[in-house]
Amino acid sequence: QITTLINHKDKPKRSDKTLQAIQRVGQAVNLAVGRFVTVGEAIANENHELKEEMSVACIEARRAGETIAQLTNVASLDHPESDSHITIFTDKTGVVKAARLLLSSVTKVLVLADRIVIKQIITSRNKVLATMEQLEKVSSFQEFVQIFSQFGNEMVEFAHLTGDRQNDLKDEKKKARMAASRAVLEKCTMMLLTASKTCLRHPDCESARINKDGVFHRMRLALEQVIEIVTDSRPNGENEMAPISIYSGIREFKNKVEGLRENLYFLSKENLSAMLEVILEHTEDFTDSAYTSHEHREHILELSKQAKMELEQLVSVWMQAQNQKTKDLMEDLEVAILKTCQCMNELKREVHSAATSLAADLLKYHTDHMVLKALKITGVEGNLEAVAEYTCKLSEQKEQLVEMCRLLRHVSGTEPLEITCIHAEDTFQVTGPQIISAAETLALHPSSKIAKENLEVFCEAWESQLSDMSMLLREINDVFEGRRGEKRVYLSLPRPGKHNANLKALKPVKLDTEEQAKIAKLGLELHLLTSDVDSETEKWEDQENEIVQHGQGMSSMAYSMYLFTRGEGLLKTTQDLFHQAEIFATEGTKLASALHAFSDQVQDDDKPLLLLEAEKLISMCKQLQITAKASVQGKSATFTKVDACILKTRNVMTLLCQLLPLCCKLLRKNKAGNGCLKPAPPWREDRIRTGTNTHTPERRAETFGIKSLENHVTNMTFLESK
């Protein structure tokens, strides 16, 4: 909105519509700033150490917002240039200064608020650590109950704070690390309870003490990692060692090889050879593994040898091309590049097959949890010899699963999945010995209910991690096959040629500056309509309603088309715009279908009007689709088509602004008991149920086990007597 004001072109003639549009933008900015500052001031009042800085930033922001509102108060002026009142037309620099001050002060408020959030998380972590120290030293059940109740509440608070922070993180790698640390804390909180109780019940038992110490140590590491992520720092200034995988190595190597097409001199042959050497060293993780099949091992070794030969051939042609750029040599270079990349793709496919087939076999083999069941039975029997035998089998299983995680990391395809593999490896590495110590404790004290409960908790953690591995394997396969990570179509860059074979023959065109200026007014109207639609959708209590979702989708697409009129956003060419217009029209048709379904439930005088508007929408969307698909040639004809697409999109958005409040009114009448709706059909019940289940705090809390933890803390009792 600010950019719209700054870029506003001064014209001798200004229509009432233009003046009203400018005033609405100015007022919208001021209102948004007012809401923002109110939150900032509330934060300042709760945090005295930053109150002064925050208050100053809030005052600056409010002042800048009011200045913008004053300078854009032009709707009532017939001749603003002759009036003594200063406006955007008489003082453009005033708007620029106010905008700069506003952006500066808003940024300052955000930075200060972020510092407060970080401080809250650190303070919460410190509380948890202090209580953990008390729990470690406790010597009686009664004291333990009191302190653990306090600890549980503190962990719930920490879970809420870190959960919000995880959602706010933009870096997917950090988000994955935070999720892994929080998962450790969730599981360890329950383990800490049973391990501590077991240790209190059997104070002289060495295996019980080892079991408890392992839980405390792991929790401290997880708490430390959360703080590292939140503060973006590492202890002693160490740099984080990024995990190196075969996939990332191959990706980087191929980028360098393909870069030779553009520039023959941007890297040395030694550099390229070293990169391949690192990749082939990592393939030894597969060829040296006892769990890799003979067939996979042979194929990987063959492809490694072939990769060296292909690189030698590439380097030979590359060196010749540097000295003499003949057509034949450049063709030979292209062939060498393609053969090298093809060989690397085959190597990538082979290691993926080796890792995922091993994982699938192991997970299938261990689904019955026979070793865990045997440990529980022999532990209760007090059979130390049998427990020792099964702990050896569990150790073997642990080594297999750890190796599986290491190999999967190489083929995971994305950094977040790499981190998930590392977390899984750590979990198996740590949980295995903890199960063994818990089983030994039970074998030494076979009649102890608390030792039995403790072993159950650790076995559940192991089973849970195995279940998580099945999901992780599916995700890794999805990434490899290109099924993961696609955004909703109206938020991603349209891909001409995918949906219409004729588009390939068309040359993409961008609007020049003059054309952008001509279409700017239409674009601004479209922008204001998207704001109106967004305001209307926000009024709906049920954000999962099909009508709302289609409306939000269309608003998002219309906004990207508005950005195109300014030469910004994801739509770079006219062909991108036309494709977006087609998708917009399709979404509008889907909305019309949802309106028809909704109208079947309406028993009100508004039903004919609703159906009439829905039919209008279908007609307008069809016209837009015809316009967007029409073939044109020449600059003038292309611009006319652009203008027509945006004009028809604007008309659809105008209709949408009328439809949304009408539907919302009908829903509210129903809630008020006016009986304008029949009983809700299954499609709507499902949507409402889904919406409520997904967005409630209870549902969000479950992702960290907060709900179960709260219940556990509340209902915690020790039924055993001394």
UniProtKB/TrEMBL annotation:
MF terms (GO), sorted A to Z: actin filament binding
SUPFAM superfamilies: alpha-catenin/vinculin-like (SSF47220)
Listed GO biological process terms: cell adhesion; Rho protein signal transduction
A Pfam short name: Vinculin
Protein origin, superkingdom: Eukaryota
Keywords noted in UniProt: Cytoplasm
Compartments, record wording: Cytoplasm
Example of a GO cellular component annotation carried by this entry: cytoplasm
PANTHER family referenced in this protein's UniProt entry, alphabetically: ALPHA-CATULIN
Family: Belongs to the vinculin/alpha-catenin family.
Protein name: Alpha-catulin
Protein source organism: Nipponia nippon
